[in-house]
Every structure is written in structure tokens, then in C-alpha cells.
Amino acid sequence: MSTLSITSSFAPVPAPAVVRLTRRGRLVFLALFIVVAVAVSALVGGESAATRDEGAPVPVQTVVVTPGDTLWAIASDVAEPGETRAMVHRIAKLNALEGSSLQLGQEIAVPLG
pTM here? Predict the structure, then answer.
């Protein structure tokens, strides 16, 4: 009888190395992330993305919506004559309103003048 022996000429493939962060490594990574986040927010915060000019703060008053109030009625109370439509737009933009509907008890910021 004869014996057949098969041998491989390839070396075994080592398992990939697993990277593990120590507690100190995680803290360093977190601190680096916070520093980068603060730097980025300092570069873009408080200014226009198009012109890089800082915007002027708008003096506002807070109005609580009562029964029967509409955005048009609130805007007409504070707008100059003939400027109600523009004031409605300013109020909607200032409060990030998607429509003209208001909820009872909702507090909205209204520009002064």
C-alpha cells in the first residue's frame, strides 16, 4: 500500500489585530473631538454664511396666543400701516413657523416696530 501526504506551502494567515482604546485613549479622543467642535463653532457661529458678517440682534417682545388670535392680527398690531404682510413674514421667519397656524398658549417672538 502507498501513503499519500498533502502539505500546504502557504503560511497560516494571522488574525487581524484588534485596536482597543484604553480609558486614557478614550479621554484623549473625546477631548480632541470637543476642541475641534468648539473651534468649528467659533468659526461659523454668529455670522452670515454668505457674507461672514455678524447679524444685528432684533429687539423682540413675547406674545402668548389667545383664542381668536391669528398671525395676521398679531402682525397688524405691531406693523407700520401697509406693512402687515412683511411683518407676518418677519414673525414667521423669526419663530421658524412653517405655516400661519398658531396654537393656543403658544409663545411667539414679535419684532418691536
Answer: 0.50
